[in-house]
From TrEMBL:
<feature type="active site" description="Proton donor/acceptor">
    <location>
        <position position="58"/>
    </location>
</feature>
<keyword id="KW-1015">Disulfide bond</keyword>
<comment type="similarity">
    <text>Belongs to the glycosyl hydrolase 59 family.</text>
</comment>
<dbReference type="InterPro" id="IPR049162">
    <property type="entry name" value="GH59_C"/>
</dbReference>
<dbReference type="InterPro" id="IPR013780">
    <property type="entry name" value="Glyco_hydro_b"/>
</dbReference>
<dbReference type="GO" id="GO:0016020">
    <property type="term" value="C:membrane"/>
</dbReference>
<dbReference type="InterPro" id="IPR049161">
    <property type="entry name" value="GH59_cat"/>
</dbReference>
<feature type="domain" description="Glycosyl hydrolase family 59 catalytic">
    <location>
        <begin position="8"/>
        <end position="208"/>
    </location>
</feature>
<dbReference type="InterPro" id="IPR013785">
    <property type="entry name" value="Aldolase_TIM"/>
</dbReference>
<dbReference type="InterPro" id="IPR001286">
    <property type="entry name" value="Glyco_hydro_59"/>
</dbReference>
<keyword id="KW-0378">Hydrolase</keyword>
<dbReference type="GO" id="GO:0004336">
    <property type="term" value="F:galactosylceramidase activity"/>
</dbReference>
<feature type="domain" description="Glycosyl hydrolase family 59 central">
    <location>
        <begin position="216"/>
        <end position="331"/>
    </location>
</feature>
<feature type="domain" description="Glycosyl hydrolase family 59 C-terminal lectin">
    <location>
        <begin position="367"/>
        <end position="541"/>
    </location>
</feature>
<dbReference type="GO" id="GO:0006683">
    <property type="term" value="P:galactosylceramide catabolic process"/>
</dbReference>
<keyword id="KW-0325">Glycoprotein</keyword>
<keyword id="KW-0746">Sphingolipid metabolism</keyword>
Length: 542
């Protein structure tokens, strides 16, 4: 198994870190203590040695905090954990140039989506340069071409020695933001279907034939008729050369915009000199995207290339990737045929009766704000011992704009007509509230503007039906008799432009007019960041 380099990057922090503000830097010692505790916990509970840690994903950095974090790491014996800064643009390099203490605290300069280029201020620091988040592109063959191009050209153009893909596996509902923006796809846990996409094999062209600790040679560059090549060595005599000839339109990434360039078929000659002059044979692996005939192949082992006098010539077509290497252990892995793809079940139930599943989410639910976990309710007389509980009680310090309400979505985004039901239990007297919902149309960073049909009940004895998560567009409201610390069964039916709700088996409201959205997920959630429990969730879609 190839060695891994575990790294951590906070995207959000618990609310107590910010002391009520959406800002983690006012109390740098508290924030640093939290991050260091996470690193120590990764080792204690998961036997993970974290090698690097970042500051705050794509947000402003704070020089004082970075220095406090460095000191805190050192104080607890984590001097070997390097700090990556600042996981946005290259601006931190300007501050490092005038602050020697800050410069000493940072081990790696990491930028996101750098477009394969760096800046002079970053180069002047003489630190390791990483593209610490990149790719994030739909994983069809153009996405594979994007990945092939930037894996090489991040070093050729920008001297970045690491490129981190966001994300690794697209294992979330495809209609959430950035659907299928992973190196492979596994987004149907209900069927077990998965797809090994082209970016997986493009990754192998580099990662099977080099390891952390190898170095790029200075003799890298662009080919005369487009494309690029890099060379890496372990300083022990091994050599790996990776070549890509991706054309512009077949290698566009999600960001930044890609300026025009041309690539044409060409013959290229390489001359091995110095310690590599004695190499007589290189293993050859090839991928060809073949956008014309739609008959691509990926990571194919060819016959070894015999070398005389240290020289060899290759005939390169467009949209190809080659690896030439002294490493002989390359292997194209195999995997069983995945189960067939299929839609989310139209009839679905979960009673959450899972013992010994502490701090675990329930299958198929996708928390968009808040955290919904299995819970063992030891005070219940019997029917609701095992439940799902929303456990975050304070708005976190967030990266994106989380909702003020908690929400977890589930199901098929194409669902239009359906019935959602769930037993609910509020744990906040007077001000508590929970909902079930249908046709929820947004998640991720857009969740605050989610629309749908939301059926709320509150601990003050009222109910409300709204057309949006924030609760501004009211379709119906009235008295429900609901209270905290008692179980209630909610049922919501949406069909066409009409919605009807039931409470504890009896009609509570009916014929609310729903003009939109026409489709979306089912969902559960709470009125605020509060404790609440859910049980016996069920959906029946038509």
């Amino acid at each position: 198994m190839l060695p891994l380099v575990p790294a951590g990057l906070p995207w959000a922090f618990p609310g107590w870190v910010g002391h009520g503000k959406n800002w983690p830097y006012d109390f740098p010692n508290i924030t640093a203590s939290y991050v260091v505790s996470w690193i120590l916990g990764a080792k204690q509970y998961h036997d993970l040695d974290i090698d690097y840690v970042g500051i705050w994903n794509e947000k402003n950095f704070d020089s004082k905090y970075i220095k406090v974090l460095r000191d805190t790491l050192d104080e607890v014996g984590l001097a070997d954990v390097g700090i990556i800064a600042a996981d946005g643009n290259w601006e931190v390099s300007n501050a490092m140039g005038v602050d020697p203490y800050l410069n000493d605290a940072v081990e790696v300069l990491g930028a996101h989506y750098p477009g394969t280029t760096t800046v002079m201020e970053a180069l002047k620091t003489q630190k390791k340069l990483w593209s610490s988040e990149d790719y994030s592109t739909f994983n069809d063959e153009v996405g594979g071409g994007c990945w092939a191009r930037i894996l090489n050209q991040n070093y050729v153009n920008g001297l970045m020695t690491a490129t981190i893909s966001w994300n690794l596996v697209a294992s979330y509902y495809e209609d959430l933001p950035f659907g299928r923006d992973g190196l492979m796809t596994a987004e149907e846990p209900w069927t077990g279907n998965y797809v090994v996409e082209s970016p997986i094999w493009i990754t192998a062209h580099t990662t099977q034939f080099s390891q952390p600790g190898w170095t790029y040679l200075q003799t890298v560059g662009h080919l005369a008729h487009g494309g690029s090549y890099v060379a890496l060595t372990d300083s022990k005599g091994n050599l790996t050369v990776v070549i890509e000839t991706m054309t512009h339109d077949h290698s566009v990434c999600i960001r930044p915009p890609l300026l025009p360039f041309n690539v044409t078929p060409q013959n290229v000659t390489f001359q091995l000199k110095g310690s590599f002059a004695s190499i007589r044979e290189l293993q050859v692996w090839q991928s060809r995207f073949d956008f014309k005939t739609k008959k691509p192949f990926f990571f194919k082992k060819l016959s070894p290339l015999k070398i005389s006098d240290g020289s060899f010539t290759l005939s390169l077509d467009v949209d190809e990737v080659y690896t030439l290497t002294t490493i002989t252990t390359g292997q194209k892995g195999t995997y069983p045929d995945p189960p067939p793809s299929g839609p989310f079940p139209k009839v679905y139930r979960d009673d959450f009766n899972v013992a010994n599943a502490s701090f675990s989410e329930a299958p198929d639910f996708a928390d968009q704000t808040g955290v919904f976990e299995y819970y063992i309710n030891l005070t219940d007389p019997g029917p609701h011992v095992f439940t799902l509980r929303q456990v975050v009680t304070q708005m976190p310090v967030t990266w994106a704009a989380d909702a003020d309400q908690t929400i977890s979505v589930i199901g098929d985004y194409k669902w239009q007509n359906l019935t959602v039901s769930c037993d609910v239990f509020m744990e906040t007297v007077k001000t508590g509230g929970v909902f079930i919902a249908a046709r929820v149309d947004k998640g991720g960073g857009s969740v605050r503007s989610a629309k749908g049909v939301f059926f709320w009940v509150f601990a003050d004895g009222s109910y409300k039906v709204t057309n949006d998560l924030v609760g501004k567009t009211v379709l119906a409201e009235g008295h429900s008799g609901t209270r905290a610390y008692g179980w209630h069964t909610l049922s919501l039916t949406v069909e066409g432009e009409c919605a009807t709700g039931m409470l504890n088996g009896y009609p509570l409201w009916n014929n609310a007019v729903v003009l939109g959205p026409k489709n979306g997920w089912a969902a559960i959630g709470t009125h605020s960041f509060e404790l609440a429990q859910f049980d016996n969730f069920a959906v029946e879609a038509k």
